[in-house]
Specification:
Helix 4 packs across helix 5. The chain has ten helices and 14 strands. The protein is globular and about 55 Å long. The protein folds into three domains: about 120 residues, 3-Layer(aba) Sandwich (Rossmann fold); about 130 residues, ATP-grasp fold, B domain (D-amino Acid Aminotransferase, Chain A, domain 1), CATH 3.30.470; about 55 residues, Dna Ligase, domain 1. A six-stranded antiparallel β-sheet has the order 13-12-9-10-11-14. The chain has a four-stranded parallel β-sheet with strand order 3-2-1-4. The protein is an alpha+beta fold. About 30% of the residues lie in helices and about 25% in strands.
Length: about 325
Amino acid sequence: MPDQTPPRRILVTGVGANPGIGLCRSLLRLGHQVVAVDAHPLAPGLQLDDVVPHVIPCADDPDYPDTLAKLCRDLTVGAIVVGIENDLPPLLDLRPRLNAEGVRLWLPDDESVHDCIDKARFHRVLTQHGIPTPQTWTPGSLDLIPADRPLVVKPRGGHGAQNVHMVTSSRHARLLCELVPAPIVQERVYGTEFTADCLVDRDGRASVILRRRDLVKAGLSAVSTTFEDATVRNLVLKTLHAVRAAGLCCVQGFVRQDGSVTITELNVRVAGGYALTEAAGADLVGQMVNGLFGLPVDHDRLTYRVGRFLTNYVETLRVGDAAELAFLTASKGAAS
């Protein structure tokens, strides 16, 4: 079995945040050509050396599908890898068109994706499968919240810890539900937070790499450590099966003080802190590319060393004159 596919041209969306930036860097290290796209011209990933940068419309813009499809066609893109949740709904609609033009996507079925990106639906699916997950209420059921319960108010379709608020009463939650877009309210869970980096092959076999989120800032792991726990692993595998996961994704949850495990979310994309998974020995992105292009996933290459740690920090990629940004992006794109 080859270590990886031959060099490919792969488009990565959402390069303004850690997952997309990390994917660009990993793919470049593996020898692939990377087309980096984002809706913001100052997105950090557009400033990475050796990528082909392009600014595209926001995912909810009517021009998004045609722009992305034309970009793939003009640059002979072989595959798209999603770096941010916003791009998932329009890409699901665009999937038949991309498939017809030979552009590969590796995503679960449409219902599965929506079960994951909609936190109320995710709660319902996990509850139906008997998987522990935080109690959840919609704005219409706030009267059912027990008194003095620590709560979290967040958007149903949120990501990246945006618009997430911790409160201590249903009265505060009710007020925030007037401010947070499409909100849900969940019980606040305490314990050791973890992320499971997962790759589910086309036969349904999954590899799972576990990381403790030792220090979390703005939703991102600033310090993390790999670990092994059979209870956590088994519940992650059960969660992947419940939502019919496919390809690259990450599961998050908590190990409570009594040792019980609670699953909080599943992201249909790579996690922001997956660099630790690769540093611990798992060829996560390389095997994802194999599966993306129809080659077998080598799960023996997805084992990892326990007790490896990673510390993360904010990096300054580039400082310059914003007036020169359009020229810079155009010139780098032309150089491809």
